[in-house]
Amino acid sequence: MPTGAPGGTVQVSPRPETPIPLNLAAPTRGRRGKPPRHFVDLTPPERVAAVTALGEKPFRAKQLATHYFTHLDPSPAAMTDLPAASRDRLVEDLFPPLLTPVRTLKADAGTTVKTLWHLFDGAKVESVLMRYPNRSTLCVSSQAGCGMACPFCATGQLGLTRNLSTAEIVEQVRTAAKSLADGEVPGGPTRLSNLVFMGMGEPMANYKAVMETVRRLVAPTPDGFGMSARNITVSTVGLVPAIEKLTNEGIPVTLAVSLHAPDDELRDELVPINTRWSVDQTLDAARRYFDVTGRRVSIEYALIKDMNDHAWRADLLGEKLNARGKGWVHCNPIPLNPTPGSKWTASEPAVEQEFVDRLRAHGIPTTIRDTRGSDIDGACGQLAAEEAPSE
Fold first, then answer.
1. How far is residue 145's CA from residue 169's CA, in Å, rounded to a whole number?
2. Which candidate in 56, 126, 269, 352 is catalytic?
3. Among 36, 131, 267, 366, which residue has the fewest nearby CB atoms (within 10 Å)?
4. Is the pLDDT of residue 386 over 90?
5. Catalytic residue from among 146, 150, 153, 380
6. Is 380 a catalytic residue?
7. Confidence band for 19, pLDDT divided at 50, 70 and 90
């Protein structure tokens, strides 16, 4: 299709092939049904009801929460403040195993760790833990696969298997936090400070479980992890009704919008959800989020060689963002992370720099996103839940 700047030289880019269709249907459960009930799926009052139903005193719920969210260890052996018989019964009923680690890959001298998990029904997801000098960030998955069908994203080409439960998402967080606390990541013991919903899946398509997860993350200890909402990022490709719901939640997380094109013609192809909610509708919803929460929105933009990296598109993006005011947005261009068999590659460095310079010339704060983990297929757009070749 023509992608040249208006009035300029027309360049013809290859039309992306989308092997799978956009899928907005509610995912069906596998033959084993819903994940087993877990302590984390329950609200504090429901936790009290669950332990009393097992013949325990109500205060046991607070003890269990302390072991899970504060000590990060819900194993019977760690619960020395509970009677032995109670421990085993409570753990068996309220802490069923949900995630089984299958494969771990490390990069950046061990400070980037990608883990492949098998869920109770055999579904597969991945999470990526990244330690930096001044923070530690976990990238979590909210779905097994993804139904958004973005053709340049490895996860998008898997199709959607199912939504994750709240506990399946939170367990990714707890295990990462415990790994950091135990000093298993180089640099000594530390705490998990940041969390991004940028792993497998479209978080807004699993809205209820994602928001319940956020509530567990920000709830003060011992009822939750006590994280700052400002250190939590929820991403979306542009499910406008869900953005509007998030706007009214009263939890000031950072909203990240994966835009990838400023014009509907190209974005319809790169991000098929755009055929439902246009660039302008998506940006309008993002601006409303800023107006209500005061939280600056991040615009994610994967730079794809000869596809969406034209200087005129940077100008168009800058104009569209500025049309909605100043100071409400930050742009994160991301060099496209390669995926096996993909015909697309990252933009040339000079083109990337020109794109950034154009945005900054429009007064848009712009930072090239880190691509840590790309050598272990752990960067944005690369998660495909692959087994080891011999498995």
1. 14
2. 126
3. 36
4. no
5. 380
6. yes
7. low
